[in-house]
């Protein structure tokens, strides 16, 4: 339909004004009383052809009015062309929305690698970890849903001097076997180390020596490290299950241990790496880059994050031949990724597109998070409190909330509220954690989305109609609230693509919120089950499609929606 309208408008412009290169952009008017679609092409062409934009718009409007899909066409303002489409034309376009609810078959193309979550071993996930984890999963889900070949990676921190510290703490203060330790016990040992090191700085030297032994592969500390990793991953994976997070490749920093030495030699041979202070190996960037000198190997030959990140890029290129590698990591690491990307460029590697999908920090009132001091706000605690709060909400709403299992609904609402609370905010900005907003039944929240989906399911059950489909309309017209809902449903595919292209999940979240608002306005204004004839069929079909879009969109955002609520 849009191709037909575009062709008619372009033909008119070409015939009347002799302009060959014309591109028309259709928009949905902000004021829904201004039609279903609109274009400002006349305003864009006016200066070029030396004519009044309203004159140009009038000619385009006349041409478009002849199209069989157009009900009426009007010129508005300085030269906007507003179009009202015939009901059947609008409804026929909804087939695209129906198709967008299902995954597109995977494309036969080079993969897109998306790295996210990235927790540190031996420490429980803090609430801040939810940012990278759910943003990364949503970005991955968007690409997968649209048919991209996606590889997801969890680059977790299982290497570094912290394991030397933990080893020293275990030897000095542990009161039970390592296998009997929980992830909280490991954190307590880590915190104890830092408390003692403030009184005895020599402990830091002992910890560095211990990590050097680990890098050399000495059996005792290697066995210790392996057990710590097992304990940690068990606890982390339990939380991933609650968040509906699935990461295909759990790749640790340590797996790149054997790949770092060749890269160090390559960098030195190419004079990209040079000797720095105290025997360290560094990268010195050109002054115009504005980047500070980066260390790739310490003076004691220990490696650091940058060394391992160079190795993981080399591994991913050689193993998967990706067209993109994306890193979902907070804004505080911006300098690190600028240094990393510039370094691999200086090494002369044939590179895919490298992108740092940054996000802001999460802000809390009167809460400071510091693993070193042990004052970490644990993700598990936050999720549990969210579920408890959701349970209280369910109780206070009494019979107005109907569910077969209040515990399952509380879990769905509680976890969903935290996830949606993150994903509905612009990831590039700092995000505010707000219990009242996250659990609201009325605002831009998971419970509002979940309640709207449950409402659509309730209507469909009450309709007792097995085969719900859009009928062929003859003389029927669409009410304003119906047209608005149809228009919003038609935007689903573009919302998905926009969110995917920009890697901004809040674009999809905001679309779903708008759909909830438009559906509820439609529900409150027009009878559905009591409508007659073709209009009952239309309204049930709109309800069914709304349910499908909400469910598909929520799943992409890792949120589950109930059928009863």
List keywords for this structure.
Gyrase A, domain 2, alpha/beta, Rossmann fold, 3 domains, single chain, 21 helices, Isoleucyl-tRNA Synthetase, Domain 1, 3-stranded antiparallel sheet, 565 residues, 4-stranded parallel sheet
What does the model show?
The protein has 565 residues and is α/β, with parallel strands linked by helices. It has 3 domains: 2-85, Arginyl tRNA synthetase N-terminal domain (Gyrase A, domain 2); 112-363, Rossmann fold (3-Layer(aba) Sandwich), CATH 3.40.50; 391-405 and 433-556, Orthogonal Bundle (Isoleucyl-tRNA Synthetase, Domain 1), CATH 1.10.730.10. 53% of the residues lie in helices and 9% in strands. The protein is built from 21 helices and 12 strands. It has helices at residues 2-17, 41-49, 53-64, 87-92, 94-100, 129-145, 161-173, 183-197, 202-215, 219-243, 260-269, 305-320, 334-346, 379-397, 406-423, 435-438, 446-463, 480-490, 492-502, 505-525, 533-556; strands spanning 37-39, 70-76, 80-85, 112-115, 150-153, 273-275, 281-283, 294-297, 324-330, 353-359, 362-363, 431-432. The protein has a 4-stranded parallel sheet, sandwiched between helices. The chain has a 3-stranded antiparallel sheet with strand order 1-3-2. Strands 6-7-8 form a 3-stranded antiparallel sheet. Strand 6 (273-275) and strand 7 (281-283) form a beta hairpin. It starts with a helix and ends in a 9-residue tail after the last helix.
């Amino acid at each position: 339909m849009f191709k037909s309208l575009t062709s008619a408008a372009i033909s008119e412009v070409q015939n009347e004004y002799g302009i060959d290169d014309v591109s028309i952009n259709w928009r949905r008017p902000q004021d829904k009383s201004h039609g279903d679609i609109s274009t400002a092409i006349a305003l864009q062409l006016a200066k070029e052809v030396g004519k009044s934009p309203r004159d140009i718009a009038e000619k385009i409007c006349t041409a478009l009015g002849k199209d069989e899909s157009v009900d009426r066409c009007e010129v508005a303002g300085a030269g906007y062309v507003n179009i009202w489409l015939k009901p059947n034309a609008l409804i026929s376009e909804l087939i695209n929305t129906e198709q967008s609810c299902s995954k597109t078959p995977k494309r036969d193309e080079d993969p897109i690698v998306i790295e996210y979550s990235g927790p540190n071993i031996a420490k429980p996930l803090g609430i801040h970890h939810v940012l990278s984890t759910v943003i990364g999963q949503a970005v991955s889900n968007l690409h997968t849903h649209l048919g991209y070949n996606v590889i997801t990676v969890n680059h977790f921190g299982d290497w570094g001097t912290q394991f030397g510290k933990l080893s020293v703490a275990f030897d000095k203060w542990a009161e039970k076997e390592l296998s009997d330790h929980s992830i909280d016990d490991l954190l307590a040992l880590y915190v104890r180390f830092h408390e003692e090191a403030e009184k005895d700085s020599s402990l830091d030297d002992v910890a560095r020596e211990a990590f050097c032994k680990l890098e050399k592969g000495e059996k005792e500390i290697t066995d210790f490290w392996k057990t710590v990793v097992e304990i940690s991953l068990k606890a982390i994976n339990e939380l991933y299950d609650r968040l509906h997070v699935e990461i295909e490749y759990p790749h640790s920093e340590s797996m790149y241990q054997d790949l770092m030495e060749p890269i160090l030699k390559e960098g030195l041979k190419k004079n990209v790496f040079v000797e720095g202070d105290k025997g360290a190996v560094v990268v010195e960037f050109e002054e115009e880059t504005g980047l500070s000198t980066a260390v790739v190997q310490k003076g004691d030959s220990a490696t650091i994050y940058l060394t391992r990140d160079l190795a993981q890029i080399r591994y991913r290129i050689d193993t998967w031949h990706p067209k993109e590698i994306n890193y979902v990591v907070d804004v505080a690491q911006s300098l690190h990724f600028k240094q990393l990307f510039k370094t691999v460029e200086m090494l002369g590697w044939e590179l895919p597109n490298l992108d740092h999908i940054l996000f802001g920090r999460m802000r809390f009132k009167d809460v400071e998070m510091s693993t070193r001091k042990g004052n970490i706000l644990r993700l598990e605690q936050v999720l549990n409190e969210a579920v408890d709060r959701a349970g209280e909400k369910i109780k206070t709403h009494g019979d107005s909330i109907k569910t077969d299992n209040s515990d399952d609904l509380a879990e769905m609402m509680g976890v969903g509220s935290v996830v949606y609370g993150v994903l509905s905010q612009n990831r590039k900005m700092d995000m505010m954690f707000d219990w009242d907003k996250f659990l609201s039944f009325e605002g831009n929240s998971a419970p509002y989305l979940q309640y709207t989906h449950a409402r659509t399911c309730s209507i469909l059950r009450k309709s007792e109609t097995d085969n719900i489909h859009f009928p062929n309309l003859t003389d029927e017209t669409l009410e304003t609230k119906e047209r608005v809902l149809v228009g919003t449903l038609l935007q689903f595919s573009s919302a998905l693509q926009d969110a995917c292209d920009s890697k901004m999940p809040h674009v999809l979240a905001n679309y779903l919120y708008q759909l909830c608002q438009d559906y509820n306005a439609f529900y409150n204004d027009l009878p559905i089950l009591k409508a007659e004839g073709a209009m009952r069929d239309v309204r049930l079909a709109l309800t069914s499609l709304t349910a499908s879009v909400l469910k598909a969109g929520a799943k992409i955002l890792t949120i589950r929606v109930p059928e009863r609520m």
